[in-house]
Structures are given as C-alpha cells and as structure tokens.
Design a protein that fits this description.
It is a single chain. Helix 2 crosses helix 3, helix 3 runs antiparallel to helix 4 and helix 3 packs antiparallel against helix 5. This protein is mostly helical. The protein is elongated. The chain is built from five helices and no strands. The longest helix has 33 residues. It has one domain. The structure holds protoporphyrin IX containing FE (2 copies). One protoporphyrin IX containing FE (HEM) binds next to helix 1, helix 2, helix 3 and helix 5.
C-alpha cells in the first residue's frame, strides 16, 4: 500500500490499535510458556492447575485479539493509506522499514492463525510451527524498535512522534 497524499498522520484508532497490539504481545511473551504446558497437558489428557487453565485460555483469547487488531489496522491502511516516509530519508532505510512492516503484519496474522488451527485440530506439528515463529517475531520487533528510534534520533523524521498519542498533534 503506497503512502496516501490525503493522510498526513495516523488516525487515533490506528495508534490505539498499534499500542494495544504491543501490550497484548507483551502478555503473550510473559505467559507463552504456560500455554505450552497447557497444550502438552491437553494433548496428553493430564490435569493442570486452575491458574494454568486460566492462563492457557487467556493466551487463546489474547492471541485472537491480536489477529483482530492486526486485520483492523490493515483495513484502515487499505482504506485511508499511510503517511509518507520522511522525504530526506535514504532509500535503503525506507525499503528496510517497508520490509519490516510487511514481515510484522505477516507474523501478526500467521502466528494466531497457526495457533488456532493447531488448537482446533489438535495438531502438534502445527503448534510447533506456531511456537517456532515466536523468535523471528521477536527479532523483527527488535529491528522495528531500533528503526523507530533511528527515525527520531538519526533521520529526525516525525515517524515516532506521530505514533505517540500525546505528541501526535505537535508535529
Ligand atoms: C500473535 C498472537 C500469538 C503469539 C505472539 C503467541 C505466542 C506464543 C508463545 C511465545 C508460545 C510459547 C512457545 C514456546 O514456549 O516455545 C506459544 C505457544 C502456543 N500457542 Fe500461541 N501465540 C499467539 C496466539 C495464539 C492463538 C490465537 C492460539 C490459539 C489456540 C495459540 C496457541 C498456542 C499453542 C497451542 C501453543 C503451544 C505450542 C507448543 O508448545 O508446541 N497461540 N504461543
Ligand atoms: C509488539 C511490538 C510492536 C509491533 C508488533 C509493532 C507493529 C507495527 C506495525 C505493523 C507497524 C506498521 C504500520 C503500517 O505501516 O501500517 C508499526 C508502525 C510503527 N511502530 Fe510499531 N510495533 C511494535 C512496537 C513498537 C515500539 C516499541 C515502537 C516505539 C519505539 C514502535 C514505533 C512505531 C512507529 C513510529 C511506527 C510508524 C512508522 C511510520 O509511520 O512510518 N512500534 N508498528
């Protein structure tokens, strides 16, 4: 999706969804290993304590919310476009940002879809692919955060400001 000349900043809704996804992913990070225990116990028909069950189901609900939020962001982007990348930014940095965003969206959609398919079919191989994608997602997020900070402190573009609720209107 190319930048839209009509869009000079992200909508409040889009910014809200961005930070909601960040919080939800943080939660998945903290309790991911409980989901693995819940999954193994479910496959083997073993009992698991109440906290483990609650955390396991929370993983499913929160992961599904990530899917919904990512789809909504993509719809918003296709309908309204996105703000332009910095005019003075080198082409390689713009390209790297685009590739990073595509990979982020791909993983934000693929991870929950694989998790749901694994859960509803009871397929441990698919669950394995789901778990395998976690480290690549973390690596791309790390690259994305470094990129966002570089935009602000190095290339001095408004990209970070327009994604921060309190600063969006000071650009
Ligand atoms: C973007 C959303 C999601 C993220 C970031 C995520 C992340 C994770 C992480 C970090 C683990 C632990 C991996 C490990 O310990 O090696 C895990 C395990 C698991 N998740 Fe998710 N998850 C998401 C959505 C979902 C959804 C919607 C489901 C649906 C049921 C699901 C089902 C599972 C299952 C079955 C496992 C156990 C996999 C195994 O141990 O082989 N996940 N997930
Ligand atoms: C779980 C962690 C994160 C995920 C999954 C994530 C995901 C994304 C995605 C998919 C986009 C692309 C938006 C689009 O072009 O449609 C984006 C944009 C952006 N993100 Fe993140 N993000 C995360 C964390 C962060 C953090 C911690 C920061 C700040 C340091 C940040 C700053 C930004 C900025 C500034 C943009 C807008 C870039 C622009 O306008 O060109 N993100 N994020």
């Amino acid at each position: 999706m190319p930048p839209s000349p009509n869009r000079t900043s992200w909508s409040r809704f889009n910014v809200f969804l961005h930070w909601t996804i960040v919080v939800l992913i943080l939660f998945q990070w903290i309790e991911g290993e409980y989901m693995s225990q819940f999954w193994d116990a479910t496959l083997e028909g073993e009992a698991i304590d109440r906290t483990g069950v609650i955390l396991g189901y929370s993983h499913i609900v929160i992961g599904t919310l990530v899917l919904v939020a990512a789809v909504l962001r993509l719809v918003d982007r296709f309908v309204a476009g996105r703000p332009a990348h910095g005019a003075d930014e080198p082409q390689w940095a713009v390209l790297l940002a685009k590739v990073t965003h595509v990979l982020l969206y791909a993983l934000l959609l693929l991870m929950p879809v694989l998790g749901l398919v694994a859960w509803f079919t009871g397929n441990d191989d698919i669950a394995g692919y789901h778990a395998f994608l976690w480290n690549p997602l973390l690596a791309i997020i790390a690259l994305h955060v470094v990129g966002a900070l570089a935009q602000h402190f190095w290339f001095r573009t408004p990209a970070l400001k327009r994604m921060i609720p309190g600063l969006r209107h000071s650009i």
